[in-house]
Amino acid sequence: SMKKILPLITLIIIIAIIIIIFLSMSNAKQMVVLKEGNTALTPLEVILGRYQDSDCGMVIDRMDYVSQVTSSDGKTWFFHDHGGMANWLKDKAFKDDAKIWVMTIDTKQYINARTAWYSRTDNTPMKYGFGAYEVKQEGFITFDEMGLKVLRNETLRNPYIQKELLGK
To answer: Are 122 and 81 in contact (CB under 8 A)?
Structure first.
């Protein structure tokens, strides 16, 4: 009778759902958070949609504001907002020795983050506002100044700074 078959059908459906969930989970792409072995300390290729930001954990889905931090032992971390990179780096023991690469807006290539210039009003993924540029323009700041502004919360994430810089 139907009364005896129904619990069995329900059980089969539940088991099928569980199997489907497990299969889809194992199929999920492995996200890259950290790459080891970059002893050349050079910028690595970032595959959009596969790499995760080490500061906020979000998926990196555009190259405009990508930065990479490599420690002397060849470990490389990836970021989609330079403000997030500065925030992550602030309390790392190796911060002064790290090799840091930033993607530039003006020349669209990786350059040394410490020699780049930073705008304060770019529409960046995490809303810090710092775009990296190879060529200095009016109002741009240095790498050290950017780090200080992140520490002091003087970024576009702060409504007072946003009003001061953007008038809104």
So the answer is: no
